[in-house]
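quick one if you have a minute, typing this from the bus. below you get a single protein, a line of residues and a line of whole numbers that encode the local backbone shape. could you go over both lines and see whether the tokens make sense for that sequence. anything you notice is useful, everything is just below.
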Amino acid sequence: MQISPMTARDVDAIHELATDCGFHIEPKQELERSFAHCWVARLQAVAPQPVAFLLAWQAADELDIIAIGTALAARRRGIGRALVEHLLRYAVEVQIRRVILEVRASNAAALGLYRSLGFQEGRVREAYYSEPTEDGIEMSLEINEHPCAPPGGESQCLEA
């Protein structure tokens, strides 16, 4: 698997993938935003189309995961985990203090992934999501408490 920053050549594929996953994002606009970070995953370095993406926005010393999407045929292969671990390594490199996100209360796979990476649940945002209407759960991870950021040491995260 290869993870790399999204480029202009990925925009159409990521737009289609995001739409298939139920996200309303505009990858072309995200490329133009200085605070947006979007990574794509390909099963092989030479694969023409990405099979997954992660979009995060940076504000000061926080990263907010806006969307993670994986093609249906590529799910349950650890690609989402690899993308989040990539984001966490980036967070350590640029001295991010906290990573935050919201997740649908019914998304058991995502909740399990985030919990396994050390994210803690916060408040429940009632009726946060639409189509269908559903509660969102806020989650956060303090980077200085994550295994990627040992005090005074090298990153311990596995390479994707």
